[in-house]
Design a protein that fits this description.
The complex is a heterodimer.
Chain A: H1 6-22, H2 28-44, H3 60-63, E1 68-69, H4 80-83, E2 92-97, E3 100-105, E4 115-118, H5 119-125, H6 127-139, H7 144-152, E5 157-161, E6 171-177, E7 184-186, E8 189-194, E9 199-208, E10 214-224, E11 229-237, E12 243-252, E13 257-264, E14 269-278, E15 284-293, E16 298-307, E17 313-322, E18 327-336, E19 344-353, E20 359-368, E21 374-382, H8 386-393, H9 399-415, H10 421-432, H11 438-444
Parallel strand pairs in A: 1-7, 2-6, 5-8, 6-9, 7-10, 8-10, 9-11, 10-12, 11-13, 12-14, 13-15, 14-16, 15-17, 16-18, 17-19, 18-20, 19-21
Antiparallel strand pairs in A: 2-3, 4-5
Helix pairs in contact in A: 1-2, 2-6, 2-7, 5-6, 8-9, 10-11
Chain B: E1 7-16, E2 19-29, E3 34-38, H1 45-53, E4 59-67, E5 70-71, H2 77-83, E6 85-88, E7 95-99, H3 100-114, H4 122-135, H5 141-144, E8 146-147, H6 153-167, E9 171-175, H7 183-195, E10 202-207, E11 220-225, E12 228-233, H8 236-244, H9 246-254
Parallel strand pairs in B: 3-10, 3-11, 6-9, 9-10
Antiparallel strand pairs in B: 1-2, 1-4, 4-5, 7-8, 11-12
Helix pairs in contact in B: 4-6, 6-7
Classes of the chains: A alpha/beta, B alpha/beta.
């Protein structure tokens, strides 16, 4: 029985503690959902490499650490200095410390009816606003970590873009881990509701200010109404000692458009599951992502795009760079439901290995149950092109500079899919700043 | 002619993947000279070009190459470039994601730094690039595009001569820069080469066809056959080759074919 493993028993004790702590601050339906989710977790147990979905990602190192729950909001107040790197974004910032909402800094341009706030505070003060979306979301737990997140839901952001509203400033959900000595487990849950004809940009950042170990187990739900347009970015820059597991679940109505970008640079082990369901006719989604890992980091993206209605379009483009003994996993499923005729789906995953010890498993899967569709996929894994390196060197660039130039060139096209320019510039800086010429190379991106 | 040799190749034997491609090449090039090396496919022309530029997959079996009196084969490719060796590639490499302008500015500044000159800033470089682009009638839009990415064959070859103009080498080796060009493009490339002829610069034209030599007059023509220079002469040798074909050289090199 999965439920009898010592790891699960540890979480059972934690659950009792957590339940006692939060039950009086949340509505009864919420508690019921948490309890059901925990029962679901006990049934599922932690995944093992014997399961197809987890074949290349062994979570044993995560299970070896006994994380304590991030039960109390840390005493620290929102510090301006945490937001300094993002000043250029001119965003509405919601700041979370060790998973707990500590405050917001809002920019101008909040349309009437716009909500962006901590979900725990809303559960206490205005549960009726979050219930319809959160309750449904909590009931779905495809794997143990999503169930665990529902059971232990620390806090998170609830964002509602009201009907017809255009929110020009990006909404930045900044999850800061203090990364102190004692390892904490944080279970953020974000719910983003974009009502019909609305438009917004949402950026989720996971960043550490310390370098101790911790565990982020995040779930983000995006409900995109008819004809709404949402750009969603997930920026994962956790500490190298951290574990990051995340699920992003996107549901799109008729003619909705979503572009999703997953940036994965940090963590010892990072696994992101993305599910996009194109429920409405004519819905479009672009799932893009970029990972760059080194040392013994492991980065895993599992994506599923479900074409559930006719005339829906998906574009998926993931690129990764792996150095040293780093490992990467990309698993991308495109599922075309019966009747989803005129589906147009394309998937590409490209990997650049900068060492002979780095390893990538890339696995495209197409399941097509309709007969009038256009679907394609392609994957590649390769090293820097020797002839191109020679070409650069024959023009006077030294070997290291040539390598850096070609490596940043590999990243250029995927980073150009980041439509929000200030973020694109930040990414250029984050990924290249260890190089002496990074400023010049970043110009190129 | 200037006395001192710029490039001296002495009995160079080169192997790749266990097979000997160059079987003892001896060649001296002085500043100001234009040499043409002609030969059929597989004779070793491109191998010679790449060995001189520093491609690392070749095994030097014997011989030496002196450039300005120093051992060229010991220098990494970037050092050769900085000291003034330039190879125009037969197949210029596409580098998606790097703009031509960015790439060449990096190259020019790497070479300028080596030569003790101040780096050019973006504006200075742009002015220089525009001036040199005119030489080969290179469309300015190609400066902003990624290096060779999606360029036509003719654009790639022009881009190579454009790079040569920017980098101002002392020794330019042009590997089949004339292949695959229509007559208009060939004329433009030839004009570019002629404009870059200088008393202190040597040019080695590696070519399969005599056609380019209608526009660029070499001082010396060499015929490379099966890894050896089997004949050297004036430009009339190129004309003779064009008339009689490479079969004639094969016979001359190996003796008449027995029937």
């Amino acid at each position: 029985m999965p439920g009898d493993s010592p790891e699960v028993r540890l979480y059972r004790e934690h659950f009792a503690e957590w339940d006692a702590l939060v039950r009086t601050h949340e509505p009864a339906w919420m508690r019921a959902h948490r309890q059901q989710a925990f029962a679901r977790f006990e049934t599922l147990g932690f995944p093992t490499t014997r399961q197809e979905e987890w074949r290349f990602t062994n979570i044993a190192p995560l299970l070896r650490v006994s994380f304590r729950l991030s039960a109390a909001r840390p005493p620290a107040l929102l510090s301006e200095q945490w937001l300094a790197p993002y000043r250029e974004w001119a965003a509405h910032h919601l700041v979370f410390l060790n998973g707990h909402f500590v405050g917001e800094v809002s920019a101008d341009g909040r349309p009437p009816g716009f909500i962006a706030h901590g979900i725990r505070a809303l559960l206490r003060d205005a549960p009726e606003v979050v219930e319809p979306h959160l309750a449904r979301s909590l009931a779905e737990a495809p794997h143990a970590f999503v169930a665990l997140n529902a059971a232990f839901l620390t806090d998170g952001a609830f964002v509602r873009i009201p009907r017809g509203a255009l929110v020009e400033r990006p909404i930045h959900l900044l999850f800061l881990a203090l990364g102190e000595e004692e390892p904490l487990a944080v279970h953020p849950r974000n719910v983003i509701v974009a009502e019909e004809n609305s438009q917004a940009t949402i950026i989720e950042s996971y960043v550490s200010v310390g370098d101790g170990p911790y565990f982020t187990n995040a779930v983000t739900e995006l409900l995109i109404g008819e004809n709404a347009v949402v750009h969603h970015y997930k920026v994962q820059r956790e500490s190298r000692a951290a574990f990051h597991i995340a699920a992003v679940r996107i549901a799109e109505a008729h003619m909705a458009t979503v572009s999703d970008f997953s940036l994965a640079l940090g963590a010892a082990l990072a696994r992101t599951d993305i599910l996009a369901v194109l429920k409405g006719e004519g819905a479009e989604c672009a799932l893009n992502g970029f990972y760059w890992v080194r040392d013994r980091q492991l980065v895993d993206h599992h994506t599923v795009i479900e074409h559930a209605a006719p005339h829906s379009t998906s574009r998926e483009f993931y690129k990764g760079i792996l150095e040293d003994e780093a490992r990467g996993v990309f698993d991308g499923t495109i599922l075309v439901h019966p009747g989803a005729q005129k589906t147009d789906a394309r998937q590409v995953n490209k990997n650049l290995l900068l060492s002979t010890e780095a390893l990538v498993n890339t696995n495209p899967r197409l399941q097509i149950l309709a007969d009038d569709v256009k679907c394609s996929h392609g994957a590649s894994i390769g090293h820097l092109d020797e002839e191109a390196l020679f070409y650069c060197r024959s023009r006077g660039l030294d070997a290291e500079r040539a390598r850096q130039l070609l490596t940043s060139a590999f990243a250029a096209d995927i980073l150009q899919t980041i439509a929000f320019a200030p973020l694109r510039r930040c990414v250029g800086e984050w990924i290249l700043r260890e190089w002496p010429e990074w400023e010049r190379l970043a110009e190129m991106l | 002619m200037n006395g001192a040799a710029l490039l001296e190749i002495r009995n160079l034997r080169v192997r790749v993947e266990g097979q000997e491609i160059l079987k003892g090449i001896t060649l001296t090039v002085r500043p100001g000279e234009v040499h043409s090396i002609m030969g059929p496919n597989g004779s070793g022309k491109s191998t010679l070009a790449k060995v001189l530029a520093g491609r690392e997959i070749y095994e030097i079996v014997e011989g030496e190459v002196l450039y300005e009196g120093e051992d060229l084969l010991r220098m990494p490719p970037e050092e050769r470039a900085r000291r003034g060796v330039f190879l125009a590639f037969q197949y210029p490499v596409e580098i998606p994601g790097v703009s031509n302008l960015y790439f060449l500015k990096a190259a020019v500044n790497a070479i300028r730094t080596y030569r003790g000159l101040p780096e050019l800033d973006a504006l200075e470089f742009l002015a220089l690039a525009r001036e040199k682009a005119k030489l080969v009638e290179l469309d300015e839009s190609l400066l902003q595009r990624a290096v060779n990415d999606g360029f036509s064959g003719g654009e790639k070859k022009r881009n190579e001569i454009f790079q040569m103009a920017l980098l101002e080498p002392k020794l330019a080796i042009l590997d089949e820069t004339d292949s695959g060009l229509d007559i208009d493009a060939l004329r433009v490339v030839a004009q570019g080469i002629n404009a870059l002829r200088r008393p202190d610069r040597a040019i080695v034209l590696i070519t399969h066809y005599q056609r380019l030599l209608n526009y660029v007059t070499p001082d010396v023509v060499h015929v490379l056959y099966d890894g050896r220079i089997v004949r050297s002469g004036g430009k009339e040798l190129a004309v003779e080759l064009e008339e009689k074909g490479y079969g004639w050289i094969a016979e001359a090199a190996l003796g008449p074919v027995q029937s």
